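Handout, section B. The chain below has 547 residues.
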Amino acid sequence: MTQLYLREKKQARQLLVTQVKRYNCITIFEITEKFTLMKFMGHAACQTQLNKIWNGRILSNTSNLKVIAAAFIPILIVKIVSIDSAEGKKEHAKLVSKDSAEEKKEQAKLVSIVSAEEKKEQVELPIRKWPIWMTKIYYFYHSPSIKFLFSVVTYMAMLVVFSLFILTDLYPISEKSPSVKEYIIYTWAASTLTEEIRQAFMIRQISLSLMTWFSFWTLFEIVMYSMLTASVFLRLILSAEIFYHARMTYAITLGLFIINSMQFFLVSKHIGPKVIMIGRMMFDIVFFLLIFAVFLFGFGVIYQSTMYPNSTPSFQLFKEIIYMPYWQLYGELFLDQFEGKEPSTCTDDVTLYQNGTIDRCPEINQMNTVVLGVYMVVTHIILVNILIAMFSHTFTTVQDNNELVWKFHRFSLVREYYDRSSLVPPLIIISHLKRAFLSICSKCTCEYKKQDKFKIETDAVEELAILEGSAVSKYHTSNKETEPSGLNTSSEQETDLSFQHQLNSVLSKVDSLEKWVVRDKRKRQIRPVALNIKQHVPAQTNIVENE
């Protein structure tokens, strides 16, 4: 890819998004994302292509302040946005060299590739001949960066409305009917959830890889929308006396929506890796909790059986088992109960503490103090330090590859907002209805087909394959010229090979193996014929000698 990008930048970027038949009609971008090839995604060709898709038709030299100002003041778009349809075509049609005849053939193929791209760009323009200012506005608001900007603004506005609703206007249904703010929140959440489901089926297509599909933020959003559904359900069925349960679920749901806004930081090169780091540390906490739960229940049963024997089976018993050892992890030791200093408000009467009138007095047992010491050693010295080591490993792993991690996850961000509609929730439901109608029409007439810059079909696939092969051969020759001696250096070079080089080397080995199999079959077919000839030849010689 480096050799191809140095020679022909535009064709190298096109190769990343071109469907390749020998890869089962998927693109190099999709292979890179599926197998988590961060080094390849960090290549200049990949990042340049992502920047080109992210900015859309907006010129790269336009500052962010101008873009933000033009987004809210459409009059300024005429001076900022430019349709980039004819720029750079002459640059890609230049001759690389005029010395050899082979390079002239490649140049002719390059011209055919550029002409094919020109035709696609002409098709991409609106069918009607719109005025220039309308065309600029169209492409400006269809760029993924502008879609992201309005998504952030509408999400923050929704959080403000949601907060006002919970803080000032949350009453039982029997006391007050739902307000306008509540309907706005429900409509926004329903349209956003519909968009998430559409992206899951259309973009990710329910990948079988659990680590790519069931990521932290995906699980977080599932919990978030499930809590919102539970909040609405409790609001409808609970009476005013127990309405605090619905209020609590609404408050937790609002907190989850606020935390979910951290995903917008992924667009930042400096804050984005920290968000990814937090998501990975959450999985570390899950593994820690699984180990901690073993010691929690183990020591909790010891405490409960020796301090409060013969307890009544109930949910309160389960709570008491985990209550004391859990808070001891944070420094609350409950020494008054362990050392026998009983609280003044307790009793040993069974009827009183079973009725809940007074707390039960713990039984004095000096072994509990020893058990407490062992528990503190295990949890504070061993388990907590294991958790710190896991966090340190995650932090170091992400920090060492800070830029590569951000560039790799940036692909999914650009892909998501490229496919998203320009309409913001709740108006995005109009786009969903339009997509559904066009999808039905395409199945009936087979005419409509949406253009996808992440997966294009080109007529110049063979020309791109030739350019790819020439770049690979030049890469081999350059490596042979600068190949250092020694087994260690050669092994290090093999690990640093690009994904494209490795894939082509495997394909070449498969082709050579296939040729060898064909030759072997031919040899096996020739051998019986040769044996028959040898058997006939001696008989003929004997006849000649007798004559």
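Note. The chain has a mean pLDDT of 76. Compare this with the example in section A.
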